[in-house]
Amino acid sequence: MATTPHFLTLPSLLLASVVIFLLSSKTSAIGINYGTQGNLPPPQQVVEFIKTKTIIDSVKIYDANPDILRALSGTGIDVTIMVPNGNIPALANVENARQWVGANVLPFHQQTKIKYICVGNEILLTKDNNLISNLIPAMQSLLEALKVSGLPDMKVTTPHAFTVVYNQDAPSESRFNDEQKYIFAKILEFNRQAKSPFMISAYPYFMVDPNNVNYAIFGPSNAITDTKTGKTYNNMFDAVMDATYSAMNALGYGDVDIAVGETGWPSACDAAWCTPQNAANYNINIIKRSQNKGTPLMPNRHIDIYLFALFNEDGKPGPTYEKNWGLFKPDFSPVYDVGVLRGGDTGPPPSSSEKWCVAKQEATNEQLQANIDWVCSQGIDCKNISPDGICFDNNNMKARSSFVMNVYYQSKGGSEEACNFSGSGVVTTTNPSTSSCVMQNVEGGSVHGT
């Protein structure tokens, strides 16, 4: 997600930051990052909003959240999922990679269009040698696991912060720094062999010149002419894209596709250039660039792009700008208009009348076990989560606890109080059932399910 980049400021050189940004391969695709840090609507309602109220058709999430993947089932929306950074060392082992695919991809792939799998996020920026040394092996193992599982078309890559030494007077002269050339060459070789894009985050916001803000937000400004190629740049985004391409080309990988996993502009921060108007202007022009517009060095070339972000996320730590990247507020009303709403409709989607009670994501194992013990002491039949039961999952305490919590909740007619469980339960309209374990639901006061 958007964070302050680690870059070096020089008279004509900048070391900027980039994360990742992806879009669908269709020329009309509009991609969005769907973060979840804050008091946001449940996934089923969010996906219904995206599907019915917007023209967004590509979504990137920062994990492999099963609730979100279930909500996206059958929508036709392209999805990018992510392997958490901490899982990378284990995934260097092919068998572990196969288990990860089995748990996070195979249960969903037939109904949910998973297009990209990102292995970690900005790993080189972590300076963690254990993660860095296992990054490429993990990508290779995951690719092999997908092939063995009959899913060779899913693309594996990893998102990068923008660590190109950026020459603002001559973007074509921008290069990877000497310390990272070797690892970037190996990653690019993987991308070439796997036919996957090299992913970056492109944030002119973090590189903005206070005296030339318009250049960063696609406003009227003094154009920059590359002193080496003679190409003219009217905005910083195109210059950053060509700087990335030039750095890749210098290593012999100019043929590898580029994807932008994140880009955006905050509507509020502690500086004068963060306004809804500036954010709208930036993102409207980014959407135009998703239509195969290309750049001076890459004319008509398609670059997959995901806007950052769907929502303002009030749960994110850090300064004001971190909470204000969203196109929409948590109630689905637009922060500003970039033309992604269908017919000007700004209202939230109708909520489902079907409801379930499940354990909160942050609930501890101690809370979950206490919930199981208490519910089973109240005369509720808990045989389905016993070792021989159809809903028993020895490795998923949350699933077992959610099952009995929901049975209790349904037995009380779906009252909100019956799903409190000392603050560890939450009512959802997203069906938590699996193919082998169907959870009852309340709809209009009657109980359905088995």
TrEMBL record:
Task: Spell out the InterPro entries in the cross-references.
Answer: GH, Glyco_hydro_17, Glyco_hydro_17_plant, X8
- Would the keyword Signal turn up in this protein's UniProt record? yes
Care to name a GO molecular-function term for this sequence? glucan endo-1,3-beta-D-glucosidase activity
X8 domain residues are 355-439
Q: Which UniProt keywords apply?
A: Disulfide bond, Glycoprotein, Glycosidase, GPI-anchor, Hydrolase, Lipoprotein, Membrane, Plant defense, Signal
Q: Which residues form the signal peptide?
A: 1-29
The top EC class, named as a word, is: hydrolase
* A Pfam family matched in the record: Glyco_hydro_17
May I have one GO cellular component term?
A: side of membrane
Q: Which SUPFAM superfamilies match?
A: (Trans)glycosidases (SSF51445)
Catalyzed reactions? Hydrolysis of (1->3)-beta-D-glucosidic linkages in (1->3)-beta-D-glucans
Look up and give the membrane topology term.
Lipid-anchor; GPI-anchor
Q: What is its EC number?
A: 3.2.1.39
- One GO process term, biological-process aspect: defense response
What's the main place this protein lives?
A: membrane
Which compartment or compartments is the protein found in?
Cell membrane
Which family does the record assign? Belongs to the glycosyl hydrolase 17 family.
Q: What is this protein called?
A: glucan endo-1,3-beta-D-glucosidase
Species for this entry: Brassica campestris (Field mustard)
